[in-house]
Write a structure and sequence with these properties.
209 residues, seven-stranded mixed β-sheet, alpha/beta, single chain
Length: 209
Amino acid sequence: MAKKPELDAAYTLKDADEARAFYGDWAETYDSSFAASRDYILHEEVATGFVAAGGVGPVLDVGAGTGLVGEALARRGVSPLEATDLSEEMLAVAERKGCYARVFAADITETMPIPEGTYGGIVSAGAFTLGHLGPEPIEELIRITRPGGLLALSVNAVHWEAAGFDAAMEALGDRITGLKRTPIRIYAQDASHDHADDLSMLATFNRAI
């Protein structure tokens, strides 16, 4: 039986195929049934952190979903923006919002057909979490970032510890500079549901020059 599209089910996804089907089913109602109803603000927090750290385009939004981060970056004057996600259905919703110059489906756990050093910035809100991505794809994201470019990746705080993100970041050594880890809220201060107080770790760092 397919999992009902909701947060707790999302945290138990087993693989890329399951995630692709799950988010395909959720795409058309995600903004209303999840983001709006749960006072989700992670996309705003990531966009704010990216701009505050000096991030500039061109930017790739990783695990872009329905394009909430793209909208938040566009409102802050960041461009051009591109989006990638496992789910083509999610990307179809994102594309309708008009903030991305290009959207394309890809699995970032594999080498993507993107030349090295393509993007000035990489952002991600919500893809690095329970049932989703561990730290392994970060090396691929660094590869497609220009020397000196900024990456701003949110990682669910529980997942950060459980999946060993501290060790993974340390293992990158001199390939990155300026690493900062900042706890941020996933939901608004006045949210009232079971996950209302969940936190994410925003990791911001630059590809070494």
